[in-house]
Design a protein that fits this description.
There is one protein chain. The chain is mostly helical. The protein has a domain of 28 residues. Helix content is 70%, strand content 0%. It is built from 3 helices and no strands.
């Protein structure tokens, strides 16, 4: 009888613990999704995009900014 009581107590504790952890993980996932959306929206603003990513700085001169003198050969 005592062993059965201990098993039920353990199951209750596990249930309570797992519910709390589920709630915390769900909140964490929600916060991360919100941060992802905010970050993606900030990347649409050219001023922020220049400061947030290194790729734009490494790409070089944009095609619309180049002139025909840039294509001279020899």
């Amino acid at each position: 009888m005592n062993r059965r009581h201990a098993t039920r107590r353990y199951e209750r504790l596990y249930y309570v613990f797992s519910k709390r952890m589920e709630r915390k993980v769900a909140i964490l996932i929600t916060v991360l999704l919100i941060l992802l959306v905010v970050y993606q929206l900030l990347l649409l603003v050219p001023g922020f995009k220049k400061n947030l990513t290194t790729i734009d700085r490494l790409e070089g001169t944009p095609i619309e900014g180049q002139t025909m003198n840039d294509y001279k050969c020899c």
